[in-house]
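Reopening this ticket.

The earlier resolution said the output was attached, but the attachment link was broken on my side. Pasting everything inline this time so it's all in one place.
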Amino acid sequence: MKTTESYEQLLERFTKRITQVDPEDTERVSYLKGCIDTVEYLMTGKLPRDGNHDGMKDHKPVEGHVRRDLDALD
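Inline output:
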């Protein structure tokens, strides 16, 4: 079984992959950028500065916290 990659490893992987895909494939590039934004948020709590999160405050990440009560998100 493969062990879980660290945030740093994931960032490296997604960043490398962006340089490998066809820049014309905007859907794939957007997906990879979203993956990078997600990992950076998990690492730092900083929301992406993409215009969709204006007015929202950054968060302090909680180490080792996994939300299991997904019903609360409805």
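Reporter confirms the inline version is readable. The first helix runs from residue 7 to 20. The mean pLDDT is 79.
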